[in-house]
């Protein structure tokens, strides 16, 4: 059975707008040493699961942080825009084997500059409502 992390990764790589900018440079949790920029990392922040009176409903809505790193503000913004376009209000199958996604919501976004790496950084928070 596929995980929502695998589904998110596959969905971003399969999106033409995202892959045109970062190819397959989308990494869980952290990037390898000295990655080619721009690149993307993602991590699960938390997972809420819905319940009803008789137990678990099978509906989960984990929150992920998707981080974009680039050498220029314009490159960072282009990748972030592509990710938002690929995810915000998406519903349908995600990944293979597929995860049944009810809705993806982009809930927050923050821009940073990383002095230690000289990279621009955009942090995008998303909530993915899906069936487990």
Order of helices and strands: HHEEEHEEE
What is the CA-atom radius of gyration, in angstroms? 15 Å
The percent of residues in helical segments reads 25-40%
Average pLDDT, rounded to a whole number, is 94
Number of strands: 6
> How many separate structural domains?
1
How far from one another are the termini?
10 Å
* Share of residues in strands: over 45%
Widest β-sheet, arrangement of strands: 1-2-3-6-5-4
Main sheet makeup: 6 strands, mixed
How would you sum up this structure, described in words?
With 132 residues, the protein is an alpha+beta fold. It has helices at 4-14, 16-22, 73-87, and strands at 26-28, 39-52, 55-70, 92-94, 99-114, 119-131. A six-stranded mixed β-sheet has the order 1-2-3-6-5-4. The longest helix has 15 residues, at 73-87.
